[in-house]
From TrEMBL:
Endonuclease/exonuclease/phosphatase domain boundaries: 132-341
Entry's transmembrane regions: 25-44, 64-83, 90-110
Highest taxon listed in the record's lineage: Bacteria
Leader sequence segment: none
Pfam families named in the record: Exo_endo_phos (PF03372)
Protein name from the UniProt record: Endonuclease/exonuclease/phosphatase domain-containing protein
SUPFAM superfamilies: DNase I-like (SSF56219)
Keywords on record: Membrane, Transmembrane, Transmembrane helix
Amino acid sequence: MPPRVPDLVAGPPAPRPRPSPRRRVTRVVLGAVVPVALAALVLLPDLVGLDHHLPFAVFTALRPALTVVGAVGVLAVLAVLLVRRRAGAVGLAGLAGTALVVAVAAAAVVPRAVPADPPPPGGTPLTVLEMNVFEGHADVGALAAVIRRERPDVVVLPEAGERFRARIAALVPDYRSWTNVPSRSADVRGITVLAAPRAGDVTARVISDAPGTPSDTRYPWAELTGGILGPARLGAVHVVSVVPGWIGYWPGELDLLQRWCARSGGPALVVGDLNATPDHSAFRAGTQGCADAATERGESLTGTWYSGVPRALGAQIDHVLTTGGPRARDVSVLDVPGSDHRALLVHLRL
């Protein structure tokens, strides 16, 4: 069929009109700036202190899992662009910037999966078991079975008052037990400590400063001394949660960990639910001078909370910290029914 006359006589196609400056700016913002900014707000809020506020504190706690999600997203978008073979400069800039943010986040996360050199042989072995028992709802029989099997020297149980102390003590009668709250207090307020016969004459005292003072904490803390600990002090702590109405106290409570982590105070351990991970800037500031046992042993990415999701998706907010001599040689995360936390079992050398 011969071509139509209009097609033969038509001139070259008219040039496309250039987008206005405002449209070009909008395209750059939406295609490059917004994706990079969103990635930074989700993965790196601690670099500018936003992780002291919600929801950024939660994003920071979940950075290991979110970093994997971000990396998968970048690779998926890149694959789509390669298949279609069309990608504008703005889109490529956005993808490259997002990839850089993911790489920075990965650089903060990945080293925590690599164990440091083990501690030298010798020294007094010390085994510590820590578990938040979720307002006293943890399965006391299952927890007692773990204690009988692992024989920890010291057990620290946040959210365990007198009611839970009495129940667990009845199942492990050879352990001495103590709680830091009055008998009428709800379990969620207390911390119960158990000491094995091997621990010797360990003594405990309450740390609960006057309400409204700079050193006040929402939950009372405790300190253990003597016996197997020798010159070391052990702080049993439960830092306030990152929830509305309470998060304002959270950085200050983490700062109070310096009473043990400051090297001038001598050898010490901090054991408990800190409601923070090494990704939080407040955690790093408050624990300066301390080493995180799980980080030293390459287990820092195993979630202790929330126990209802796979370990790789959770956050490790339960910790054993050391300074001034004690070193971790082995760290395990254990499942115990009835709690929203997993237990942390740490073998150390004093």
